[in-house]
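Notes from the 1:1 (GR / supervisor)

We went over the backlog. Supervisor wanted to see one worked example end to end before approving the batch request, so GR pasted a single chain during the call. The sequence is below; no edits were made to it. Supervisor asked that the structure be written out right there so they could see what the output format looks like.
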Amino acid sequence: MSPWVKICANTSLGDAQLAADAGADAVGFVFAPSPRRVPAEQVAAITPHLPASLEKIGVFVEADFETIATTVQQCGLTGVQLHSVALEELASRLRHRFGTALRIVQVLHFGTEASERLKAVEADRFIDALLIDSRTATAVGGTGIAFDWQAARGQIFAGHGDLKLIAAGGLNPENVAEAIAILNPWGVDVASGVEASLGRKDPEKVRAFVTNARAAVTEPTIFPVH
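Structure output shown during the call:
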């Protein structure tokens, strides 16, 4: 089965349509402080022109419920990606407001506390998927830095077959097949790895990323385990 593929941090209709045409399952729009942030009004003008089957996911960092709910409605979003410590209450309220039609993705940064936080997410019946990302001292996403895939395979990705796990952080067309071979994730997510410049997608990179992610399942490459 092919992995779910999300092209994140889109800032224009052209880039979002490019992802759709390349065969991505979802596009992401950043509503948090970031060089790739887009106003809700701009996203609301983009989403009606995208295929109905394409998931439109908003990325929020420590946003309150009303802000998220208003943005979902205004922009016609079909999912949210939450960077939040108020996990259970926020996810619960979103589920009760929008029902199962809204995909709720929680972000978990790989690190020393990842295993403990994973247990909390597994116990939360309102979370649809968990996105494993890297972070820096100044950025919670879009860092272009990969986490330790070998360590994450044992600590996070192995033994959680019922939990939808999404690999992110430092992925690009050249390494996505290797990441999939090592982690066997439910999905993959990319932002800076397919850019031509900050906030602008590179058509060749977007198409190559989707193609290589799909091929990693049907034509797997064997990578050495260190």
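Supervisor's comment: The first helix runs from residue 13 to 22.
Batch request approved.
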